[in-house]
Design brief:
Layout lengths: L1 H9 L2 H8 L3 H15 L4 E3 L4 E3 L1 H25 L7 E7 L1 H18 L3 E7 L13 E5 L8 E8 L1 E5 L1 H7 L13 E4 L7 E6 L2 E6 L4 E3 L2 H9 L4 E5 H10 L3 E3 L8 E7 L7 H15 L6
Parallel strand pairs: 3-4, 3-5, 8-11, 8-12
Antiparallel strand pairs: 1-2, 5-14, 6-14, 7-12, 7-13, 9-10
Helix pairs in contact: 1-2, 1-4, 2-3, 5-9
Length: 293
Amino acid sequence: MEVFVAVVDSGGFAAAARRLDLSAPVVTRAVAELEGRLGVRLLTRTTRSVRVTEAGARYAEDCRRILADVSDSDAATSGSRSQLKGLIGVTAPVLFGNLHVTPIVTDYLRRYPEVDAQCVFVDRVVNLVDEGLDVAVRIGELPDSSLRAVGVGQVRRMLVASPAYIAAHGRPQRPEDLGGHVLIQPTQVAPYPEWRFAEGGRPLVQRIRPRLRTTTNDAARSFALAGLGIVRLLSYQAAEALASGELLPLLESFEPPPTPVHIVHHEGRHMTQKVRAFVDLAVEMLRANPALA
């Protein structure tokens, strides 16, 4: 299994042989014996390349998990955290990842020097199983799934604008007043032309006509900081600018209930020791983060 995974990751038999400090014939024979025992072709070989088959890709993922379990068992028996090794995949929304997950990954990699990390920061819900990742930060209500979720805090959905914009255009007093203001909409994150509020415990929906649409919250925040208009952000996205006074909150009494933030990961036997160590660190750091209080 180690030899096969090395061939897949290295893209060839010769490269895998160098990586494992074995001869190329030994590597070739090991994979051939594995294919013979399984009765399935795992790799497609040509004179120029080696490609993994669909069955081989699935088997490689199983091999990685099994080898990680073996490594975890060795580390647990010896009591040495430094023996944690392998690859851990983490996903989060773009801005949240940049602001709050990057410090966690940095601390984690310093603690465990033999672990590598892959960070996928995108503003969409990533399927951990399909994309081969281990841990996700999810903002919002969670659907039922086989994944385990640990709550780490909550964020508010809030309207903000710069002092310069407010001085020039005034403050809206109610959601329906937004029709007379310049609105900025991060369309990739919230594609529908309406903003949701609450009044007296009841939901209130306000249709909007944004003057500016942009694909990321980061860009929308930058336009608001420049005084262009009003933007709706999650509180962590605006926390630094609110603290400095560069942005001011609007319509706070109409905000909907806070949105929960969770760490989501595989449960049971799929949760290796390196993943458990990352989840424990992430939960500790995020629960102590004032932006999620």
